[in-house]
Amino acid sequence: MRRMVHLLSVLTCPNCRYQAVETMPIDACLRVYECKGCGAIIKPKEGDCCVFCSYGSEPCPPVQEARHSR
Length: 70
Fold this sequence. Notes:
Blueprint: E1 8-12, E2 19-23, E3 33-34, E4 41-42, H1 51-55, H2 61-68
Antiparallel strand pairs: 1-2, 3-4
């Protein structure tokens, strides 16, 4: 049974805590994001593949799929 992948994630800026609902790309990792609150350029934490895995309410779709396939 295949589980649904969530495509919406709430990104929280580590600088100003501004939150924005963003649609994640299905087949790629987002490595750079500009905060809509303070304009900071956000990059993933070391060891994470993208900003959604570091600062999102949901990890990116490739990570979600990998977790479901275990």
